[in-house]
Amino acid sequence: MKSLICITPGKLEYREQNTPLPGAGQALLKTRRIGICGTDLHAFEGTQPYFTYPRILGHELAAELVEGPATDGFSIGDPVTFIPYFNCGICIACRNGKTNCCETLKVAGVHIDGGMVEYLTVPANLLVKGNGLDYDALALVEPLAIGAHAVRRANIEENECILVIGAGPIGIGIMEFAAIKGARVIALDTNEIRLAFCRNHLSIQYTINASLADAGAQIKEITNGNWPDVVIDATGNVSAITKGFNYISHGGRYILVGLQKGDVCFSHPEFHRREATLMSSRNATRQDFEFVIHCILNKKIKPANYITHRTAFDKVKDEFASWLNPASGVIKAIVEM
Questions:
Q1: How far is CA 180 from CA 122, 183, 187, 249, in A?
Q2: How far apart are CA 254 and CA 243, in angstroms?
Q3: Residue 236, exposed/middle/buried by CB under 10 A (0-12, 13-18, 19+)?
Q4: Alpha helix locations (H) across the chain?
Q5: How confident is the model at residue 71 (pLDDT cuts 50, 70, 90)?
Q6: Global pTM?
């Protein structure tokens, strides 16, 4: 079978490999769609933490179930996705149901090889039913689940004001789920194409270009001087994260979804004065995956809105670098197998 490997930052290479055989408790999947995410792009750039090379990228997958153990509700040929966070099941996080932050978590396409292959094996207990969704929609469940998890972790309530820093796919998903909760959403980004996307496709009322000198003043005005109840960073950019501390309301919450390699510094006296809450949000759980599928089935989320670029698997090597260019207007690139 053919695979696509990131050999080193900036270098992709197609290789032939043996089709894997499923072991005990595993399922064999035929890849049908692969979503390209920020993790893949950062790995290609060489800026992804926890990353070693060479690595097969890809963890936003839609697939056909080819072989596997008798698993409740699944049949051979079913469209499926899977939870790409391989957890141990025995550490304190797993015992408490937080499988998304297992002590020894292995994420497909990051810590272990991912889905840019024709066939792959995954733990059968991580399969997620397609429930009638097409392959395009199934490939978007995982990134949307990250946004759903962040909103659930932030405990967002109706009529709260939410500032989302970063209007990439994860940030856009956060905006959608915050809006579903009844929150007022402000989108902050430096990319005017993405801000326009938020206005035109998500009906986000407030969009602000972060590069403008008065960006902070605009946020303050929108919130009547109170600042946002919740600030969520979906950039992983240390400068953006640091500025985000300035936007938290007194008693507010700051949730870090984006990830970067270095330290984050902020004024402890100012943070303490506001009695703010700081938390991270990592990956997602099965509950989040199922909520996303529910929202898609009930037309609260339109996956087709996200897909701006589409290509065949044998063209990914040539087109991948172009998706790093903000001018390309890419929100979500989908690879067809």
A1: 32, 7, 15, 22
A2: 11
A3: buried
A4: 38-45, 92-95, 135-139, 141-154, 169-180, 192-202, 215-222, 238-244, 268-273, 286-297, 316-319
A5: low
A6: 0.95
